[in-house]
Design goal:
The protein has helices at residues 24-30, 55-76, 92-103, 124-127, 130-142, 145-156, 163-175, 180-192, 220-229, 243-246, 248-261, and strands at 7-11, 34-37, 85-90, 110-114, 206-211, 233-236. It is α/β, with parallel strands linked by helices. It has one domain (7-261): Alpha/Beta hydrolase fold, catalytic domain (Rossmann fold, 3-Layer(aba) Sandwich). A six-stranded parallel sheet has the order 2-1-3-4-5-6, with helices on both faces. Helix 1 links the parallel strand 1 and strand 2 (34-37). Helix 5 (130-142) packs antiparallel against helix 6 (145-156) and helix 6 packs across helix 7 (163-175).
Length: 263
């Protein structure tokens, strides 16, 4: 009998919320995967909360939420076979993922890090490319939802026409407006995050996903992470920073490939 496909926790990045995964969770469902969506503190459903200024505290609060969901789902699941638990972190979500699996390595069976960056592997101008940072900061201080979202999609996507996604994102912005102090706290947390000096022996298998056309975070960041950790790295030649938006088919196929290879 085929093994059940994983239940994968999806974590977004800077100033984004779980609904920015758009169609990707449903596409996972169509492939037989289960998914768990959680907003990082200070955004989405939690936009009224204060965002921590450290990755470790972001991890702690997110894990606390996740453990409650896992306990609830486990108690209601009557199947004999349990699904593997995976985690996929995009960008800042990748920092949270690494912090999580190195401090609590028994929580997940597999981890994936997409288009992330961290100290000490890269200089600041590679971790977030300076022209992109200037454009993003200017739009955030302008406080115009349409302009903010247009700028974000221009920086994170290689698609020529993102009108549908921009319109949807503007609506999300109005429903749960990201607070500038929370964005600044996330930026502070990301800028200070450093890859841990010690890695536990029981770390779950971990893969790196890299968009070669990322215009926000230099691809050198994922390459340096791979050089340091020797974790397998997978290159996408089409997508920008928002991998699941630009090339969901590639990402879905890659998840299936990694799952089948490890099982």
């Amino acid at each position: 009998m085929d093994r059940l496909k994983p239940n994968i926790l999806l974590l977004r990045g800077l100033a984004r919320q779980k609904k920015h995964w758009a169609d990707f969770p449903e596409q996972l469902t169509q492939r037989g995967w289960k998914h768990t969506l959680i907003d990082l503190p200070g955004f989405g459903d939690k936009y009224r909360d204060e965002a921590p200024d450290s990755i470790s505290e972001t991890t702690n609060l997110t894990r606390e939420h996740w453990l409650k969901l896992v306990s609830k789902n486990t108690s209601s699941d009557t199947s004999k076979e349990k699904r593997p638990l995976w985690i996929l972190g995009l960008s800042l979500g990748g920092m949270v993922t690494i912090d999580w699996i190195t401090r609590f390595p028994g929580d997940f069976d597999h981890a994936l890090i997409a288009n992330s960056s961290m100290r000490p592997f890269n200089p600041p101008w590679e971790r977030i490319q300076l022209p992109s940072l200037m454009r993003l900061t200017k739009s955030l201080f302008g406080k115009n939802p349409e302009k903010i979202e247009e700028t974000i999609y221009q920086l994170t996507s290689t698609q020529e026409n993102n009108d549908r996604h921009v319109i949807a994102a503007v609506e999300l912005f109005r429903q749960a407006p990201p607070q500038l102090p929370n964005v600044m706290n996330q930026l502070m947390a990301a800028s200070r995050y450093r890859f841990p000096k010690e890695i536990p022996d029981n770390l779950p298998p971990t893969d790196i996903l890299l968009s070669l056309k990322d215009g926000l975070v230099s691809p050198e960041c994922s390459k340096k992470l791979h050089e340091h950790t020797k974790w397998p790295i997978h290159f996408n030649e089409k997508a920008g920073h928002d991998l699941s938006l630009d090339d969901p088919e590639w990402l879905l196929n890659k998840l299936e490939e990694i799952f089948n290879t490890n099982n």
